[in-house]
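Weekly sync, protein design subgroup
Attendees: M.S., D.O., the rotation student, P.L. (late)

Item 1: inverse folding check
M.S. brought a backbone from last month's batch and wanted to see whether the design step gives back something sensible before we order anything. D.O. pointed out we never logged the input encoding, so this time it goes straight into the notes. Structure tokens as presented (137 positions):
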């Protein structure tokens, strides 16, 4: 938690917009794990992308009262953050793209960490995390 901190962001490259932290202390691995978990929470309705009822989840930051708020309607996810200006529109991503990008981020991050710390690759908790959120195409 304390050993790999920094800033994170979610970016809509087509609209040239992002939601990002600028605090320097966000536990990056915890964020990647939580983001993957939130995407799964947004997919609990048996109707999936056909569900008209909004599905919501939030990501709380460990050392702050700030949150990122996620709301899925049909196949789209709106993402807002407590620190965004009121007039600012949420970022919107397709659910499928958000799931793929979140898992790619987690796996790329784990690959970087295990390159830096060889013994980490032998940790059963890392195996469990990778198995729980496999890459998707």
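Designed sequence read out in the meeting:
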């Amino acid at each position: 938690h304390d050993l790999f901190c920094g800033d994170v962001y979610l970016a809509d490259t087509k609209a040239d917009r992002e939601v990002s932290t600028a605090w320097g202390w966000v536990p990056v691995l915890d964020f990647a794990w939580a983001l993957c978990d939130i995407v799964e929470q947004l997919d609990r309705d048996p109707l999936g992308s056909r569900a008209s009822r909004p599905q919501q989840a939030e990501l709380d930051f460990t050392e702050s009262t700030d949150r990122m708020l996620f709301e899925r309607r049909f196949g789209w996810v709106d993402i807002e953050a407590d620190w965004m200006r009121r007039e600012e529109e949420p970022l919107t991503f397709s659910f499928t793209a958000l799931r793929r990008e979140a898992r790619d981020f987690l796996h790329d991050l784990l690959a970087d960490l295990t390159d830096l710390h060889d013994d980490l690759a032998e940790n059963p908790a890392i195996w469990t995390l990778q198995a729980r959120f496999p890459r998707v195409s």
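Discussion: Helices lie at 28-41, 95-116, 124-132. The chain has a mean pLDDT of 92.
Action: P.L. to compare against the previous round before Friday.
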